[in-house]
Write a structure and sequence with these properties.
Distance between the termini: 25 Å
Largest sheet: 7 strands, mixed
Structural class: alpha/beta
Radius of gyration: 24 Å
CATH architecture of the largest domain: 3-Layer(aba) Sandwich
Strand order of the largest sheet: 3-2-1-4-5-7-6
Low-confidence stretches: 161-168
Strand content: 25-35%
Number of helices: 13
Mean pLDDT: 87
Shape: globular
């Protein structure tokens, strides 16, 4: 079954091995894919309306999963026992309704359940509720599909041992509630495109109201919304953006213009050409031993945390050649096979990171580049999960790779 991008993101956000309760299940597609793929052992598909629930029952029966996916006609989480689920998934409804459903059942928060949520409006209400319940947003996605923008949040309880730093000001807290702490931190590009459109729309409305002589008091709320949008855009602007203020060919100052399916893009009026922002490209690698049961982690630049072997792509070099070169230069090992895994834009250094897994000819670490590598060692896959720098891009790449290996039951 092929899911839409939004539904696929919801499914990917659920932690492996979790039993889910899909509230407002509609067709039942997400629990079907999760259970059918083996990612989830079982599920509850719930909906308040008989019609959508019957469609879900029919689809579940068609794929032979009636014994593993239960259906329930209920309002929100009414009648669902927290002991029967590990993840609560709610999507396709407004923020106010979702807030009411969650607020009515604090026992799911008290039990430390995982939440995967996709409110269609009033996102800030859900973020505020999670904060009140001592929950944190673990990851957040901002998507554009079929002409609409969607947000997906994965949330869990704040661990007792975690020290959560308070935000620097009430204004920063308001920005995080409105636009998402995770999305602001990673400088999400889709959110930024959305905010640029919102900024231009609000400016246009305010200008029209001014021309029509509308009293300032009646437009003050909209003006405040515009200020918040502009403050968010200042946070979302990627490092190195100032390098793209002028055309790289003629030096003319660039202006942002809407490009269909791309959002707001710098445009040179003299060259009549869109100038896409420039960024660096680098590779990172899960370096595997010949038996493919260990991964190599390194320490670098005097830091105490382990990371993956990585390096920048040189001009004229393809990414695969960079993998081979960097592994040889940094740890003195010859690559015998490699496979592309995943890419992710890393905003702090304005870099597109390309992640590969690769196998090397031996476990010999006697030829590492001491001027680049402080320390390195081989770890079992389970050990690597513990030692990799927590919360880092390297940990996200490594954990994705290991999850894939567990899912397919084989190495490269």
């Amino acid at each position: 079954m092929q899911l839409s991008r939004r539904l696929d993101t919801l499914a990917k956000a659920v932690s492996p091995g979790h039993r889910i309760a899909d509230i407002g299940t509609d067709h039942g597609f997400v629990p079907i894919v999760l259970v059918e793929s083996g990612k989830c052992p079982g599920a509850i598909a719930a909906d308040v309306h008989e019609g959508p629930l019957q469609r879900a029952k029919d689809h579940i029966k068609e794929v032979g999963l009636s014994d593993r996916i239960a259906t329930k006609q209920t309002d929100g989480l009414d009648g669902i026992d927290p002991d029967d689920v590990d993840t609560v998934l709610i999507a396709g409804m407004g923020g106010s309704l979702m807030e009411r459903i969650l607020s009515d059942h604090p026992e799911f928060f008290a039990a430390g359940k995982e939440f995967v949520l996709s409110p269609q409006s009033e996102w800030f209400k859900i973020r505020k509720l999670l904060r009140r319940m001592s929950y944190r947003i673990i990851q957040e996605w901002f998507l554009f599909e079929d002409g609409k923008y969607y947000v997906v949040m994965k949330a869990g309880p704040i661990p007792d041992h975690d020290q959560i730093s308070p935000v620097s000001s009430q204004e920063r807290q308001d920005l995080e509630d409105l636009f998402g702490p995770y999305l602001l931190q990673v400088k999400d590009e889709t959110l930024r495109s959305y905010m640029l459109l919102q900024r231009d729309k609000k400016k246009e409305i305010l200008a029209r109201l001014e021309r029509e002589g509308v009293a300032w008091e009646k437009s003050a709320g909209l003006a405040q919304e515009l200020r918040m949008v502009e403050k968010a855009l200042a946070i979302l602007s990627p490092k190195g953006e100032d390098k793209m203020r002028y055309c790289m060919e003629c030096g003319t100052k660039l202006k942002e213009r809407l490009l269909e399916k791309e959002g707001m893009v710098p445009y040179c009026e003299k060259c009549k050409t869109f100038r896409f922002p420039v960024f660096s490209t680098a590779v990172s690698m899960e370096v595997l031993n010949p038996a493919r049961d260990k991964v190599l982690l390194i320490k670098q630049y005097g830091k105490d945390k382990y990371i993956l072997v990585a390096g920048y792509v040189s001009k004229g070099e393809n990414a695969e050649d960079t993998v081979v070169r960097e592994v040889m230069e940094e740890v003195g090992l010859r690559v015998t096979g490699l496979h592309f895994e995943k890419s992710e834009y890393f905003a702090p250094s304005n870099t597109l990171m390309l992640n590969f897994s690769c196998v090397v000819e031996s476990e010999d670490l006697s030829h590492i580049a001491r001027d680049e590598i402080d320390y390195c060692r081989w770890f079992s896959f389970e050990e690597a999960k513990t030692y990799i720098a927590p919360g880092s891009l390297a940990s996200r790449f490594l954990n994705r790779f290991l999850e894939k290996q567990e899912a397919i039951g084989e190495s490269l």
